[in-house]
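re: the backbone from monday

yeah here it is again, tokenized this time
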């Protein structure tokens, strides 16, 4: 039975990945989830898997080399899927240090512990081991608005925010381990994800939650920045396929050609909520475009992201399965069915963050 060590499995993409893997492989795999449970880590995301015999949660910090080393010593880990990170650009602008600590130092610790555990006396690595580093398209910087340019795996790195700079640093460390030691790894650089369990500091869950609560919908700058949105389950599928079929030492971009301006996203959410809310629901009356509020732009705001996914399609046969129209309906339906989850997340710390970030309630 193959053993996966998933870091950051209590976060948004990590928890969706764990669900995806158990749905697909059931009892044929074992997953060890290592997460320190920051504000973004939530064990409620994993309630339905926590009693499985082939699932273990370990609360540990990826920067703690003793704790991580012990996990490798006590378990025969076959695959590392490294999600754990500080992930929100706005927070990185206010408090960059923790991004460097977790994203750069934490990745160095993970690489070092895996290398120590997997390396043979002759400097080669045990058969079948792989480290998959989950990264972002933001490392490539910003594209012009002309719609003809894309991020390729060969696009030079040009990160602008402390978040993307720290992710670029972590990617470079993985590349250095591959080049120097022939360390068995892959890097995936994915575009913006959305779906169940996403923390409401990110655009899509924030807009859904605010609209349902009749609160203002903050749009940065002119609202015309473009992001390339991917349903989170499609990202999980891509990671699994790269792990299975990806050639060692390669980087794969992950994205589904779904570019949209932020203001389009906000309008689609309003329309979809209007469509999905029954007439008897009192919230239907206040969900409308009057809530849209243009606010001060994000510092250093990248204008456009767009992935060219040709390489991953050709190499491993990955293509997204969920179009945006269906994905956003599934996401909104999930938030309708999980109001308790949102209530628990919108706690005092979140309110404090929201007020300091947006200077409004
Ligand atoms: P998230 O913020 O929802 O989750 C991050 C998880 O990491 C949390 O559970 C948190 O508790 C954990 N964590 C943070 N610091 C830790 C530490 N020091 N030790 C152990 N655990 C720690 O993030 P996400 O949106 O799920 O992103 C996951 C990964 O995917 C990140 O590496 C991110 O850069 C990358 N990524 C995200 C997106 C996106 O759109 N969200 C797109 C591309 C790539
Ligand atoms: O591209 C991949 C990246 O996508 C990931 O690496 C990051 O971890 C993830 O957070 C995400 O980064 P973004 O900064 O693109 O996502 P966010 O949801 O924060 O913002 C999306 C766009 O919406 C961005 O242009 C900023 C804008 N925005 C965001 C918020 C929170 C607003 O206009 N208003 C808002 O309130």
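seq for it, each position gets an aa:
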């Amino acid at each position: 039975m193959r053993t996966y060590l998933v870091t950051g499995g209590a976060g948004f993409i990590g928890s969706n990945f764990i669900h995806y893997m158990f749905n697909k492989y059931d009892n044929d795999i074992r997953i060890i989830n290592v997460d320190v449970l920051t504000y973004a880590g939530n064990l409620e995301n994993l309630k339905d898997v926590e009693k499985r015999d082939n699932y273990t949660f370990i609360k540990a910090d990826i920067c703690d080399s003793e704790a991580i080393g012990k996990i490798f010593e006590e378990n025969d880990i076959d695959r590392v899927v490294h999600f754990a990170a500080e992930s929100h650009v706005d927070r990185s602008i206010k408090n960059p240090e923790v991004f460097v600590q977790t994203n750069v130092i934490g990745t160095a610790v993970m690489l070092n512990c895996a290398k120590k555990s997997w390396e043979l006396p002759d400097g080669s690595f045990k058969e079948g081991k792989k480290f998959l580093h989950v990264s972002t398209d933001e490392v490539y910087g910003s594209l012009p608005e002309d719609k003809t340019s894309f991020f390729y795996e060969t696009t030079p790195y040009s990160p602008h925010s402390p978040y993307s700079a720290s992710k670029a640093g972590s990617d470079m460390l993985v590349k250095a381990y591959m080049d120097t030691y022939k360390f068995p790894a892959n890097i995936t650089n994915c575009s913006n994800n959305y779906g169940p369990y996403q923390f409401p500091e990110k655009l899509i869950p924030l807009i859904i939650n605010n609209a349902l609560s009749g609160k203002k919908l903050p749009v940065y700058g002119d609202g015309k920045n473009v992001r390339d949105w991917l349903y989170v389950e499609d990202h999980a599928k891509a990671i699994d396929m790269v792990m299975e079929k990806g050639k060692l030492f390669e980087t794969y971009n992950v994205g589904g050609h779904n570019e949209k301006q932020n203001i389009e996203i906000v309008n689609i959410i309003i329309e979809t909520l209007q469509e999905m809310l029954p007439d008897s629901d009192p919230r239907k009356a206040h969900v409308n475009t009057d809530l849209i509020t243009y606010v001060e732009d994000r510092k250093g705001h990248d204008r456009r992201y767009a992935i060219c996914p040709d390489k991953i399609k050709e190499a491993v046969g990955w293509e997204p399965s969920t179009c945006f129209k269906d994905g956003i309906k599934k996401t909104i339906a999930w938030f309708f069915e999980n109001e308790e989850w949102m209530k628990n997340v919108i706690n005092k710390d979140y309110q404090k963050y929201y007020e300091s970030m947006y200077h409004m309630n």
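The pocket of nicotinamide-adenine-dinucleotide (ligand 1) is lined by residues 7-8, 10-14, 35-38, 40-41, 61-63, 83-87, 102, 106, 134, 136, 167, 190, 192-193, 199 (CB under 6 Å). Residues 107 and 170 are 6 Å apart (CA to CA).
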